[in-house]
């Protein structure tokens, strides 16, 4: 696939928001009002662009996304809100559209004020950069500590889907229909779709991907997921097919974010099965996936099953430890709540050397199951974050 989605154009420039001069201002524009759905962080501390984007996205139609890196514009009070309004006004003027049709997003340092004058100065240049092939520049411009850009594509019953994201740290998304510096995701499709259908598909896809992954357990002030549909293909996929396509691209982005976790070397899918409900399984998997002791054991490539079982035991869900079974990459290391032996753990340690693998905990014989993505946690995470602001 080419990355082209009918009806959309993309561009990016350097506005001098970053200290290093890299491109840091990204724009995506639809040629017509696009059907729009969005999810935002549930963190009580919400960045100014989240507050404004949530209000504007509630209209169900939008024309553009304006995203910047280098400044989260979070915890900036009225000045931050004015900066969003002024920057989107400048872009709207350059595009000949209403400011209410521009959805803002930001990522970077919390507490820093957005240099709106720098953005306004680049408005015309950014509008002139727009091309149907500009999605790579868009993806690069929103990166912060990311080691690579994050792009995913899918085809759904003749329509195209393009997803662009960023995220490597402060990754523990909790996005929802209520206003939900780190994870930004923008999904563009040329499918014909009703707003309610797009909203349901986006929510379902996000719940099993973004809301089921973690790097460090910290939910950002800026998490934003926006989906826009131009309808330019003339194709109307079924809701089931659209949901599957969105889940496909969101899953790819989520896995890429976890793999790119600051200082991370491994991606582990923690799957919990056999509990009474799916909700119980998710709670147990989430607790294990965010355990510092589990994550450091993964960094050490150590099949420390005791940490896995202990984390499950404090998750607040009911199970019989005497029935617990644990396997790593298909290698059984615990059966009936007891270790199988040193040789099994040695084989599991070899699995843990791989860049990605699965860990399964069977905690009963119930129907509830859930899989949660996590990364290992090592010295590199501290190196990145101890001096992030400097």
If helices are DSSP runs of H or I spanning 4 or more residues, what is the number of helices?
12
Low-pLDDT runs:
177-181
Amino-to-carboxy terminus distance? 40 Å
Largest sheet descriptor: 9 strands, mixed
The CATH topology of the largest domain comes to L-amino peptidase D-ALA esterase/amidase
Q: Overall mean pLDDT score? A: 93
Task: State the secondary-structure class.
Answer: alpha+beta
List the domain count as a whole number: 2
CATH architecture call of the largest domain = 4-Layer Sandwich
Under CATH at level 1, the class of the largest domain stands as Alpha Beta
Count of beta strands: 16
Report the portion of residues in β strands. 25-35%
CATH superfamily of the largest domain: L-amino peptidase D-ALA esterase/amidase
Global Rg? 22 Å
Helix content: 25-40%
Keywords:
single chain; 390 residues; alpha+beta; L-amino peptidase D-ALA esterase/amidase; Ubiquitin-like (UB roll); 2 domains; nine-stranded mixed sheet; seven-stranded mixed sheet; 12 helices; 16 strands; 27% strand; globular
């Amino acid at each position: 696939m080419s990355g082209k989605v009918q009806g959309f154009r993309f561009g990016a420039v350097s506005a001098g928001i970053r200290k290093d001069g890299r491109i840091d201002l990204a724009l995506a524009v639809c040629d017509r009002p696009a059907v729009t759905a969005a999810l935002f962080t549930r963190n009580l501390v919400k960045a100014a662009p989240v507050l404004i984007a949530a209000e504007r996205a509630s209209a169900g139609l939008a024309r553009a996304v304006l995203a910047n890196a280098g400044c989260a514009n979070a915890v900036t009070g009225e000045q931050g809100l004015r900066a969003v309004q002024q920057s989107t006004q400048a872009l709207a003027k350059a595009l000949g559209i209403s400011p209410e049709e521009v959805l803002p997003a930001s990522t970077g340092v919390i507490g820093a004020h957005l240099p709106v004058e720098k953005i306004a100065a680049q408005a015309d240049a950014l509008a002139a950069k727009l091309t149907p092939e500009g999605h790579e520049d868009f993806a690069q411009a929103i990166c912060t500590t990311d080691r690579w850009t994050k792009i995913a594509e899918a085809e759904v019953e003749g329509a195209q889907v393009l997803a662009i994201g960023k995220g490597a740290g402060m990754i523990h998304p909790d996005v929802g229909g209520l206003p939900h510096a780190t994870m930004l995701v923008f999904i563009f499709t040329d499918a014909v779709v009703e707003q309610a259908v797009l909203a349901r598909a986006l929510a379902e896809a996000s719940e099993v991907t973004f809301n089921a992954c973690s790097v460090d357990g910290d939910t950002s002030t800026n998490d934003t997921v926006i989906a826009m549909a131009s309808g330019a293909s003339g194709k109307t996929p079924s809701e089931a097919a659209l949901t599957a396509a969105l889940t496909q691209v969101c899953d790819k982005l989520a896995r890429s974010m976890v793999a790119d976790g600051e200082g991370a070397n491994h991606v582990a899918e923690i799957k919990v099965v056999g509990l009474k409900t799916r909700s119980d399984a998710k709670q147990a998997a989430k607790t294990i996936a965010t355990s510092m002791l589990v994550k450091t054991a993964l960094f050490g490539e150590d099949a420390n099953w005791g940490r896995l079982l202990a984390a499950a035991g404090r998750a607040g869900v009911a199970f019989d430890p005497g029935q617990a079974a644990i396997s790593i990459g298909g290698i059984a290391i615990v059966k009936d709540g007891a270790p199988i032996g040193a040789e099994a753990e040695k084989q599991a340690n070899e699995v843990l050397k791989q860049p990605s693998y699965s860990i399964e905990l069977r905690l009963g014989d119930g129907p509830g199951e859930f899989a949660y993505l996590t990364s290992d946690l090592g010295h590199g995470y501290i190196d990145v974050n101890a001096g992030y602001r400097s």
